[in-house]
Design the sequence.
């Protein structure tokens, strides 16, 4: 899968994970806007709460739970959408063996 497409799919998965997190935890709000989710997904690795207006996480345990939900959704989607190729590094070993 091309890098740009992989990046777009990853951000879409992040947006869905944030939507799921807001649905599960009452302490996470997105201001009722899909565009807020998209922007939050784009800057999720940064201090999202302070950068994206309308996206709020209230309380430490809500933050901890939200982190677990977003991580789990991302890990599952990554495993399903971007499976690792078997024998990774095998090509390099075969090339080295030929020389």
Sequence:
């Amino acid at each position: 899968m091309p890098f740009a497409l992989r990046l777009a799919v990853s951000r879409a998965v992040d947006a869905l994970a944030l939507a799921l997190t807001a649905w599960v935890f009452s302490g996470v709000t997105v201001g009722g806007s899909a565009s807020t989710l998209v922007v939050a997904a784009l800057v999720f690795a940064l201090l999202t709460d302070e950068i994206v207006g309308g996206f709020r996480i209230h309380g430490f345990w809500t933050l901890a739970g939200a982190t677990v939900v977003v991580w789990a959704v991302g890990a599952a989607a990554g495993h399903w959408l971007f499976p690792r190729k078997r024998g990774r590094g095998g090509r390099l070993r075969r090339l080295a063996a030929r020389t």
The chain has five helices and two strands. The beta strands are 28-29, 56-57. The longest helix spans residues 3-24. Residues 20 and 69 are 8 Å apart (CA to CA).
